[in-house]
Structures are given as C-alpha cells and as structure tokens.
UniProtKB/TrEMBL annotation:
The keyword Amino-acid biosynthesis does not apply. This is Hypoxanthine phosphoribosyltransferase. One of its GO terms (molecular function) is glycosyltransferase activity. It comes from the Bacteria. Keywords: Cytoplasm, Glycosyltransferase, Magnesium, Metal-binding, Nucleotide-binding, Purine salvage, Transferase. Belongs to the purine/pyrimidine phosphoribosyltransferase family.
Length: 181
C-alpha cells in the first residue's frame, strides 16, 4: 500500500515536539561554542533532517560537511568496524567538530567515528544526536547533546528509515509489526 499511516503503530515524537527539542539543542550549542568556529558533520543519510533543522536553528556561523559510513558485517553481531563510503571534504586540524546523528542505537558507529575524527587533530569533537536507545549505554562514549532517550522499538521518520522508506515523515513513529514481520 502507498498509505504511510497504515504502516505505523503510534507517534513517538510529533513535528512540534521535534521542533521544540531542536531549538533547545541549538540554543545550548550556540552558548557552548560562542566565539568559536564550529564545523557540523552530518552522518548520511539518517542525519539529513536533524542537520537541516539544527543548522537553521543556530544563530552562530557554522560550516557543514557530510560523511557516509557503513558497518562491516551483517546480522546482529557488529564488529564495530566501519567503512567510509564518503569522507569529509574538510581538514579537521584545529577545528571544533560537532558530529550530528539521528539516532545512537548500539553506539558502535559513533564510537568508531568519534575516534576516527579525533585522530585527525581537531581542537574538539562532540556529538549531538536526536535520539538515543538504551543499548547505547553499553558503549562508553560521551554524548554531549541528546534530544530524547527513546524506547527500544523500531523507530522511523525524520530521517530514520526501514529499508530506505519513511525518512521523509516530519514526525517520528514506531513501525507496525506487520511491516517488518
Ligand atoms: C543508522 C543511524 C545511525 C546508526 C546507529 O544508520 O542513522 O547512523 O544506524 O546505529 P548504531 O548506534 O547501532 O551504530 P544506518 O547505518 O541505518 O544508515 P542510514 O543513516 O543511511 O539509515
Ligand atoms: Mn545513519
Ligand atoms: Mg538506516
């Protein structure tokens, strides 16, 4: 069917709730990086929506760059080894870097990415994620900006996909079981 709402179990975060949270995060980031040049790095493709909205909610000058990564291996056991599909165009030496993600699930992607970026000699590397799942707590990693700690369910929308679908929703919802069963 082409009817998206039939695929959803319920709405987790409305557009209004997301907008308010993004404004809150942006205000905090503006304050924390006052007087410094910030490079925001979006992780394709899930972070596209949060990057676009967060960047527009910031009042400071920022530059934007993108990375695309993919986890090695398949199934439930991930080695945490990540392959770079598209690297940054920007030299990180001396830069203040903020990685922007839609969700931290196991935390493996981001813990690998953070140490990869740290090794390039930036002044600082911090993380901003809209959603964080409970599993992420198992990975020892400092996440400075978290929008929502979300339930351990199949979440889609606002950048988050299931088989590349549902990214375009302007809210975040849980997928109805019949879709993935
Ligand atoms: C998703 C999500 C994060 C990552 C989190 O990306 O956008 O980048 O998984 O998972 P982890 O914490 O368990 O490592 P995905 O690999 O699905 O690619 P996408 O952003 O293109 O959807
Ligand atoms: Mn992603
Ligand atoms: Mg995905």
């Amino acid at each position: 069917s082409n009817d998206v709402s039939a695929d959803l179990a319920h709405v987790l975060y409305t557009k209004e709730e997301i907008d308010a949270k993004v404004a809150e995060l942006a205000a905090q980031i503006d304050k924390d990086y006052e007087g410094r040049d910030l490079l925001v790095v979006g992780v394709l493709k899930g972070a596209v929506m949060i990057m676009a909205d967060l960047a527009r909610a910031l009042h400071s000058h920022v530059t934007m760059d993108w990375m695309a990564v993919s986890s090695y291996g398949s199934g439930t056991t991930s080695s945490g080894v990540v392959r770079i599909l598209k690297d940054l165009d920007t030299d990180l030496m001396g830069k203040h870097v903020l990685i922007v993600e839609d969700i931290i699930d196991s935390g493996l992607t981001l813990s690998w990415l953070k140490s990869n970026l740290v090794s390039r000699g930036p002044a600082s590397v911090e993380i901003c994620t809209l959603l964080r799942k409970p599993e992420a707590a198992k990975v020892k990693m400092d996440v400075k900006y978290v929008g929502f700690d979300c339930p351990n369910e199949f979440v889609v929308g606002y950048g988050l996909d299931f088989s590349e679908k549902y990214r375009n929703l302007d809210f975040i919802g849980t997928l109805a079981p019949h879709v993935y069963q």
